[in-house]
Amino acid sequence: MNITLTSGKTIAIKPGTSIMESLKRTGMYLNSSCGSKGTCGKCKIIIKTGQVSIKSTMKLTQHEINAGYALACQAYPSEDTIIDIPKESILTVEGKIVTGKSKDLQALLRSTGAEINPLTERFILQLPQPTLNDNISDLERLKRELFSKGLGCLRVPFRFMTNLAQTVRKNNWEITLCTIHSEDCYEITNIFPGSQKIPQFGIAVDIGTTTIVVYLIDLINGNLVDVASIYNSQIRFGDDVITRIVNASEHKELKNLHKAVISDINILLSLLRKTYHISIDSIDCVVIAGNTTMTHFFLGLDPSSIREEPYIPTANVFPISHAGELGIKVNPNIPVYAFPCVASYMGGDIVSGVLATRLHEKEKLSIFIDIGTNGEIVLGNSEWLVAAACSAGPCFEGSGIKHGMRATDGAIEDVRINPATYDVDIKVIGDDTQPMGICGSGMIDAAAEMFMTGILDQKGKLQKEVSNRVRVGEDGLEFVIHYGEGKDIVLTEPDIENIIRAKAAIYAGFTILLKEVGFTFDDVHKVYIAGGFGKFLDIEKAIIIGMLPELPKEKFEYMGNTSITGAYLCILSQRLRGEAEEISRKMTYIELSVSKSFMDEYVSGLFIPHTNVDAFPSVKELMKK
Amino acid sequence: MNITLTSGKTIAIKPGTSIMESLKRTGMYLNSSCGSKGTCGKCKIIIKTGQVSIKSTMKLTQHEINAGYALACQAYPSEDTIIDIPKESILTVEGKIVTGKSKDLQALLRSTGAEINPLTERFILQLPQPTLNDNISDLERLKRELFSKGLGCLRVPFRFMTNLAQTVRKNNWEITLCTIHSEDCYEITNIFPGSQKIPQFGIAVDIGTTTIVVYLIDLINGNLVDVASIYNSQIRFGDDVITRIVNASEHKELKNLHKAVISDINILLSLLRKTYHISIDSIDCVVIAGNTTMTHFFLGLDPSSIREEPYIPTANVFPISHAGELGIKVNPNIPVYAFPCVASYMGGDIVSGVLATRLHEKEKLSIFIDIGTNGEIVLGNSEWLVAAACSAGPCFEGSGIKHGMRATDGAIEDVRINPATYDVDIKVIGDDTQPMGICGSGMIDAAAEMFMTGILDQKGKLQKEVSNRVRVGEDGLEFVIHYGEGKDIVLTEPDIENIIRAKAAIYAGFTILLKEVGFTFDDVHKVYIAGGFGKFLDIEKAIIIGMLPELPKEKFEYMGNTSITGAYLCILSQRLRGEAEEISRKMTYIELSVSKSFMDEYVSGLFIPHTNVDAFPSVKELMKK
């Protein structure tokens, strides 16, 4: 039984396998943020001919069903089938759009003063051929050569012994050593015959609860080659870390949670390797940053105790593992470095974020906030660092929002509403790209604009009478941001409720953390903001909806995904890797969830901009108008 | 289809499987020195009833065939079968006879001045239970506890992380750490919940080309619990190291050679564990000593270049591996330490032997010779060590000798011939044990006595007219050492040729090594002799046949199997492990095989005692009588 794509490609399919799964097996990956449960609607395909059994059409409009649309994860062909896959359903690398990002990252690396000195290094050695008068063993010959070059000692894990004799002889005693510097000694991470100095790539991974991002980095020049991202397929075990831990510990799903994240990373690696024709032996190391639970799942460690008082992780600082131990599909010997964490609810992604913002070097008091599924806030300077977490939820990453999506090609990232006509002006990520959904920055823009134009009230209710773009949809009232062919892009009232809950949690986090250490917003010199909002976050709009405190605009700096930025820095500089370890040791975690004042503050934030409008004088001013 | 033993036990058997193999699968091991090729005759069984297809009866007399004897490795039942297994065919542990050996070893350890400080150590830690105020991670808690006890740093390989959370919680935060000291840090080799200080056993292994010996050692008190030994089943790939290397490199048998030695060790471990009811988690470490080729095969390293000029091993000093990497059936995490080697033809067994003889501490010039399949000789003192190899062959270990056997229960170890009656007086290893064969010391005794009584001439020919114990057997003339029920024990003329070739090689080795460094036998203060001859080696008899030089008897010391003795010392003392590494660095290997004077000397030794009888004045005197 076959599926034929309208592009011409034909794929064999087994009965009882979904189209999603069948495509995956041949290396074609579709978007999904629900883990193939049929609830996100991101894997739409169009069935042209063939009998296909459809399990659920939940996320499809009648119009779409009539036009032959189906969800690939819910579609089970029972005969030869021809399908068309819309561009927006296909998982791709980011491509050209990262050129600017690469320049910014290289500039950031330079600004730290660190030289490119990657986690792993390659040495080309031309060993003298053995003779009867120079008949030391292969291993001693290797060590002697490295020592004679002034590079010091060499540790050789046993698994490299097996092929050593063949490897050194294969290319006339010339060999390439891949090494990692550990405890004053180089440790072999790979050996190749001959000279294979370049190419050398590193893989930096940000493992978010909702989104996984992979950077392909050229270790020689620090160039960011490309980026690929995917929804974390652990989502099928729960949206948040707590539900996933419950599944791991009470339903014995730890192995499956581990496999899910590894499989996601393997999909992204496979996309990147295919796009750039990268041999498996050109990838030398992997650095990952994630929250403590994600890091545990990634490493296959039991996170049960993270959930139960007194909230203890297996480790905050992790021994280096190898790709083969974890199932990452690169050379099994290459080292995998996981960013150190601070506590059960303050992870390596935040340590990585602080490294990227350089907050730990600033003399004046600064705040760093990373708005992901969990919102984490760090306050401090070069002397001290305190941190707290506030659960914001994944809506700004597109999850739980009807037409939400990550900030990739096709995402609406900027929304303006004409207060007279209520016409909507949008900006979409990517050249000449049709809008496919809305990302975090677009949501904040939209909510602020809708509020300022009266489409939305302070409680977050849509005002049907204000604009005819407000209409009744399948989830109640919704506002049409974009009228599309076949599909309009809307924000629904439940979407807006999600956005308000998220922004309330974030603002409460700021307020209470400052209060805990005896400071106010006025003492804060800088606010660094991270998150997957897109390229730009409109600070003013974020203040209007009450997500950010009302401070002078120049105090804010939007940094994008700092977790992956820190991973980029760490993979390229051993000095910065040392700094990351220093940051994790220095940071003190404060538990906010037990604080009654946090709950009070959160409830007060469930209005736009806030129950206490006086804290937002300029918004108050605007509202009067 | 079943095999029933006369003892009552019934074993299921698959068609096409030999009785040998079927017994092995149920954990019953029979002797074999030919690797199941049907050429050693050591796995005899008696078939009582049942149709059995017999592939070869080569090693059976017509008398035996008539009595129902068969070789288990050549017997393929085609229906239910009842068999009887003679005691001498069954592989067993040494049992009670090692009590004396254990006392000697403990005395030797004490005499070195080293305290018992084994390769691996266990620590019991009671960790403080975590609280909200003491919420560091499990791993940090472990490290903090060890550090607070003044034990310093702890390195945790990644593979121990996976179960750490469960392990520390299982027994109320009490845990047992198994560690090995490496580079100023303890490295975890195992973790158990609760207190499991004892028992702790270590496994010392001597991997000989012909014989493998395993010691089960109590690491707490240094007691040798028991010994088990087996013929190296690599024998089916060749009797000597060169043939085996050819098989490994040209016939791609490396993996099978590796598996053969691991399987042999696993058989012995299984016997020992069953006999002493030892849990797999009570075995903490393995130390092996073997020649360079055997060490390579054991570790799975390609030995091809050992055979080809300029004779280069993969390594002489080996990184520590884990049992799981090698397939040894103990806890997969426990460390396996291989004795350092010196060169392609001077291995860890000799380094271990020098450690056992303490030659490297003596002020006066001494010689150490290990008579195994390869004869290795070391000359030196506390200042310097030189070494050379002379290929003696495996006859003194029982291989290539019709009724040869290792020095275990049932072996004739002492032979006296009455010069008047030619009656033979024998001593057999083990209490009340029927003689089953003859071991190395018995062969030397027999050859010397036969020579002195005129049964054997100077060329090694049997004199039929001297005694009616000389008779014509299937291999030509043979001398009956023991008339047994059903089976006589004999030495044949080909056996004697083997013995003469071996002793000639050994004597030539002594002579030429001394000559190379400008010394004579008179300069030698002590001669330490090692080998699997049995408990005693009669030095005078060894001089009579011209194996040892004629020196005052008190200069000789017979040490037994020094390779395993050194492994015993090394597993119990970290200081002595350091000494072993020092010995391997200090020793200089001299290649004798290229020396013409060695061949001349060897040919001169193919007489009893030697072509140059003047070098053996007392033997010359005896011959006159």
Keywords:
alpha/beta, 30% helix, 6-stranded mixed β-sheet, 18 helices, globular, 625 residues, homodimer
Walkthrough of the structure:
The structure is a homodimer of 625-residue chains. In chain A, 52% of the residues are buried. In chain A, helix 11 (348-357) crosses helix 15 (562-572) and helix 15 crosses helix 16 (574-586). Chain A is globular. In chain A, 30% of the residues lie in helices and 24% in strands. The longest helix of chain A is centred in the C-terminal third of the chain and has 24 residues, at 493-516. In chain A, the strands form seven sheets. Chain A has a six-stranded mixed β-sheet with strand order 14-13-12-15-17-16, sandwiched between helices. In chain A, strands 28-27-18-19-20-29 form a six-stranded mixed β-sheet. Chain A has a five-stranded mixed β-sheet with strand order 2-1-7-3-5. With 625 residues, the first copy, chain A, is of the alpha/beta class. The model of chain A has no long low-confidence stretch (mean pLDDT 93). Chain A contains 18 helices and 29 strands. The termini of chain A are far apart. Chains A and B meet through helix 4, helix 5 and strand 16 of A and helix 4, helix 5 and strand 16 of B.
What portion of residues of chain A is helical? Answer: 25-40%
Number of E-state strands of chain A: 29
- Strands of the largest sheet of chain A, in order across it? 14-13-12-15-17-16
The percentage of residues in β strands of chain A lies in: 15-25%
Mean pLDDT of chain A: 93
- The coarse overall form of chain A would be globular
Radius of gyration of chain A: 26 Å
Task: Outline the biggest β-sheet of chain A.
Answer: 6 strands, mixed
Oligomer status: homodimer
Weakly predicted, low-confidence segments of chain A: none
- First-to-last CA distance of chain A: 65 Å
Discrete helix count of chain A:
18
Structural class of chain A: alpha/beta
Q: Most extensive interface: pair and counts?
A: A-B, 47 and 46 residues
